Every structure is written in C-alpha cells, then in structure tokens.
Amino acid sequence: MATAAQEESEHKSFTRMQDGQPEDWMVIAAEHQAHYQEDAPKRIIEHLKSLDELTLGFGCSQLQHSLMTATLARNAGASDEEIVAALCHDIGKTMSVPNHGAIAAEILKPYVSEDIAEAIRYHQDFQGAYYYNYLGRSTTMREDHKDKSWYEFACKLVDEWDAEAFDPDFEVDSLESFEPEITRVFSQPKMM
C-alpha cells in the first residue's frame, strides 16, 4: 500500500525543475525531511563504519584513528560539535584522500559552527607541520590561516587530538558510545 506522499509524488507531472509548482516543492521538501534528514545520524554512523576498511599505510584503520581522535576530544571536555568534528574529520577519505578535508567539511557544514567546518576543511594544512617536508611541501601552511577565527580550534584538533591518534593499542570509546553526540549534532541542520 502506497503512502500518501508516494501517491502525491506519483502524480507529479513536471519533468523539468523549471516547471515545478509550489505544491510540488512542498511535497518534495517534506519527503526530503522525512526520508533524508531524519536518517542523517544513521547514515553518518554507516559512513564512519566504512573507514574500518582503510588503513592507508597507518598502523590502525581510519575508523580506529577517528574513534581515537574523538575519544581524546571527549576526554578533554570538548563540546558535542567538537567531538563529532573530531570523529568525522577524516570521513571524506572514503571518497577522496587528497580532498578529504573539504568533503568532511561539507558534510559537517549544515550542522556545526562555521569555525568548526573551516577547521575541518583545512586540517591537513595543519597536519603538514609534521610530515610535509618528507613530501617536498611546506611545513608552515598552517601559518596561512593564523588570522582566521577558527585557527585556535584547528590547532587543538590537530595537535592535541588528531596527531596523537595513531596508536593501535589505545583503548577507544566505541562508535556506539558516540551515537548520542552524533544524533544531537546531525538531527537538525543549522541551514538548509
């Protein structure tokens, strides 16, 4: 048996966005809210789980690294947004390692402060202080951002949580233990 929303969407006659009517867009917006936004926390958790398949040459999986980063943030008394940012900072690696910060920032952007999203976007520039010299790149790229409002958070994220999170024997908090923070942060976008 079809739901009322499914019946409504079956009766849409437009085949080009330009032809949609206000009532069409109200149905579409409601469907997005019901079937996409309300499931966002579950989809984030599933996406994070897929990081367990990636080690990328490190001694632990990217999920273990993310859990370690978030555990360190939690232990430091970070806010929910900061903990979720620490947990999700490398979530973009499932799509593109070179561009992972920008991908993660765009995933987080509707749900966290602009400062946190920007710190995630550029966190690799901050990490570069530790290894870019081995790759023929400048180790001072973080200095390009020193006048930004998010600079201090990016330093804390990278230097205190992210850079410290590669020990495969570190006892991390489980992914399930982060569900309350994930749910609080991803339940309602700040912008749409």
Search tags:
192 residues, 10 helices, mainly alpha, 52% helix, Hypothetical protein af1432
How would you portray this structure in words?
This protein has 192 residues and is mainly alpha-helical. The chain has one domain: Hypothetical protein af1432 (Orthogonal Bundle), CATH 1.10.3210.10. The chain is 52% helix and 0% strand. It is globular and about 60 Å long. The two termini are 31 Å apart.
C-alpha Rg (nearest Å): 19 Å
State the separation between the terminal residues, measured CA to CA. 31 Å
Tally of DSSP β-strands: 0
Q: In what range is the share of β-strand residues?
A: under 5%
Q: With helices defined by DSSP (H or I, 4 residues minimum), what is the helix count?
A: 10
Number of domains: 1
What kind of sheet is the major sheet? Answer: none
CATH top level label: Mainly Alpha
Q: CATH topology, which one? A: Hypothetical protein af1432
Helix- and strand-based class? Answer: mainly alpha
CATH architecture: Orthogonal Bundle
Q: Spans with pLDDT under 50 lasting ≥5 residues?
A: none
Q: Write down the overall geometry.
A: globular
